[in-house]
């Protein structure tokens, strides 16, 4: 089927440019901390928030500013002190994704090494370190001393702004009520907005359809694996 083939083509990887980041009350403080670097009061900054809240985008913005390596927490599993020393010597800054899952001794040693070298860590997680289950007291004390900032899920205004920007970037026009409909029915994340607009673009082009609420409903059903709307986009 044409529709399924279009949706199965896949999406280009997300872009994390500073110009693509939409600032809103729920992320403004976190962005201010990113911009404050290197004037942080501790070697590390803890950045937390639920999935889709934009914390990964903020991490990539900082990685560009700081010349940082971006690593997953599991990449530190089994690392020796010599391995961690080499990592700290190589990079002036490091972003750790899913930091709450990092092996405690590896994170403890890396924190100390980065502090000794006057380098920086950005720890990205769903929960702030105060809510992690940390068995190593020395690590817990270090993380308590680090500033922590949270981002919140996109509200209606922010999600609508993200969708409008995605549409504008693709030079697409959406009919009346489409953005409001999407905001009311889709997963509340910036990544979901990107995926939905890309799917709208492909289907509108392939089927020579206007981007109206019926098409928006059909695309949301396809993306979520449900059945197409039978109500012309009304729910």
From TrEMBL:
SUPFAM superfamilies: P-loop containing nucleoside triphosphate hydrolases. One of its GO terms (cellular component) is plasma membrane. Signal peptide: none annotated. GO terms for molecular function: DNA replication origin binding. InterPro entries: P-loop_NTPase. GO terms for biological process: DNA replication initiation. It comes from the Bacteria. PANTHER family: CHROMOSOMAL REPLICATION INITIATOR PROTEIN DNAA, DNAA REGULATORY INACTIVATOR HDA. This is DnaA protein. It comes from Enhydrobacter aerosaccus.
